[in-house]
Amino acid sequence: MGMNNISMRDAFFDELYEIARKDKNVILLSADMGAPSLDKFREELSSQYFNVGIAEQNMINLATGLALEGKKVFVYAIMPFATMRCYEIIKVNLSLMNIPVTVVGVGAGFGYDDSGPTHHATEDLAAMRALPNMNIVCPSDIVMTAKTARMSCGMKTPNYIRLDREVLPVIYRSDAEFSDGLSVLRDGADLSIVSTGNMVHIALEIADRLGNSLVAAGVIDLYRIKPINRELLVKSLESVKRVVTLEEHVLDGGLGSAVLEVLADNGRTPLVKRFGIPNRYLYAYGGRRNIQSMCGLDPDSVSKTILEWIKSDD
Question: In 47-126, at which residue ranges do the beta strands (DSSP E only) sit?
Answer without folding.
Answer: 49-51, 72-78, 101-106
